[in-house]
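Students often ask what a 'structure token' actually looks like in practice. Rather than answer in the abstract, let us consider ATP-dependent DNA helicase HFM1, a protein of 176 residues. Its sequence is given first.
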Amino acid sequence: MVIAKSLHSIGVRPFESPSEADLRKIEIVTGRKYPFGNHIKESLSSLPEKVEMKMKEMECPSQGKSKLVITLTRLLQSLQFTKRHYVDMVVGVEEDNLIIFHEKIRVVDFPSPYSATILLSSPQQGKLTVKAGLIFEDFLGIDLHQKVISMKETNSNVVYKHGMKHISSFAHPNVL
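Now compare that with the structural description of the same chain:
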């Protein structure tokens, strides 16, 4: 915690800033000796690339099903990352307590943007809550989560859609 406060005092706040900051200045402010700044920079290069996840629901009236498209986009492609990170993309239906899609993806290798299409049975009555999660194997606190709720009124054929985006509480702003 002391190191974080020291870095904050010299203006090094997000995870990208230490890689751009003067390594010797970091050592002076934190009271650490050489090669502490180099270790900080090496640690940052081992973090996974930042990924954005979007969910979009579309109706398929002829089939009576909903089509859910999940798109992953890699945001920081220009940086050189030293470690290959894996994520699990898991999609489930809350009402049925059922996982309907699971895929293991290597973050560096997936074509960006990457899309997965899932067919869902439309809710007959009430609501259908679909949750998607992108879970990193090696790190805690940088997972992505999203939720889409489909609601259908019992007296009409209108389907109301409500989308909500939930990102974990410790999602650092520049590296996901």
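One point worth highlighting: The two ends are 22 Å apart (CA to CA). Ask yourself how you might have guessed this from the sequence alone, and why that guess would often be unreliable.
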